[in-house]
Design goal:
By secondary structure, the protein is mainly alpha-helical. The chain has helices at about 5-15, 40-50, 65-75.
Length: about 80
């Protein structure tokens, strides 16, 4: 499964809704995520991709869109 598909699965799991946002669209502005869901998203990404995301990276801007999440993961994998 491609990273984008895994990210969409994680977003569905964390938000409890279907993610219709395009790759560059803000997940926060579209209502798919809110700041309270960010720790759950980060935890799920860590588990799925076997990475550790440091607290210093818990910035909503890094996880603003599917494309940004993909870019971030590329630096950690």
């Amino acid at each position: 499964m491609a990273h984008r598909d895994k990210i969409h699965d994680i977003l569905r799991q964390v938000s409890g809704k279907e993610i219709a946002a395009g790759p560059e669209e803000s997940l926060f502005d579209s209502g798919a995520l809110d700041s309270f869901m960010l720790p759950d998203l980060v935890g799920a990404l860590e588990q799925e991709f076997s990475i550790r995301i440091p607290d210093s990276d818990l910035n909503p801007r890094k996880f603003e869109s599917v494309a940004r999440i993909e870019d971030y993961l590329a630096t950690r994998l």
